[in-house]
Amino acid sequence: MELSQCINERRSIRDYQTKEVSRETILELINAAIKAPSWKNSQVSRYYVTDTSEKTKEFLPCMAEFNQKNIANAPVVIVSTVVKGRSGFERDGSYTTHLKDGWQYFDNGLQVQNICLKAYELGLGTLIMGIYHEQKIREFFQIPDTEEIVAVIGVGYPNIKPEMPKRKTAEEITTFK
Ligand SMILES: Cc1cc2nc3c(=O)[nH]c(=O)nc-3n(C[C@H](O)[C@H](O)[C@H](O)COP(=O)(O)O)c2cc1C
């Protein structure tokens, strides 16, 4: 698939088929994630996955109620985390720039977009979700305190083909000098 087609047609999917996604396919998505650039190549993102409908249903209470509905039938959830204190940090633990710890989330976002684009290429739908119960997710996957939970991504075969929500124009958001 052409990159432009992938960029233009990927949509957030809030209705999934019950069809399972293989572990091999999930690893293809993570393999796309790891190709993204990162602060000093620090590669701080980590992933925690429920890879069957049964396990994903057990995970659902970790999400805000409206998001539970959004991914009710999704067979896969990928939780992205970052290892704290590396991306955007000096060796002595101080921030390198005014963005403070923001770079670790920036890096994670680049990886997560790769996951979403690769998924679209493979015929899968995704939904990035930022509203969840942090502590419940931490306990569910036994995520250590050295990592910060960032995004939860629902993955599965889509049941719908949504229109693109309205976008600002390039001219509107760009300033030339
Ligand atoms: C950081 C982030 C957090 C998001 N959180 C949620 C969420 O909790 N629930 C949801 O339904 N969609 C969520 N979305 C999806 C956005 O609503 C969606 O990307 C936006 O409306 C544009 O639609 P599109 O992805 O189809 O282009 C999130 C997207 C991003 C990037």
Bound heterogens, unique = flavin mononucleotide
Number of distinct beta strands: 4
Q: Can you tell me the CATH topology?
A: NADH Oxidase
**The CATH fourth-level homologous superfamily:** NADH Oxidase
Oligomerization status of the protein chains:
single chain
What CATH architecture do you see?
3-Layer(aba) Sandwich
Cα-based radius of gyration, to the nearest Å: 17 Å
Shape: globular
H/E series:
HHEHHEHEHEH
CATH class category label: Alpha Beta
Number of self-contained structural domains = 1
- What structural category arises from helix and sheet content? alpha+beta
For the largest beta-sheet, the strand count, sense and barrel status come to:
4 strands, antiparallel
- Give the spatial strand order of the biggest sheet: 1-2-4-3
Strand and helix layout:
Elements lengths: L2 H7 L13 H11 L11 E6 L2 H7 L5 H6 L5 E8 L18 H20 L3 E5 L4 H8 L5 E10 L13 H4 L4
Antiparallel strand pairs: 1-2, 2-4, 3-4
Helix pairs in contact: 2-5
Bound molecules: flavin mononucleotide.
Flavin mononucleotide binds next to helix 4 and strand 3.
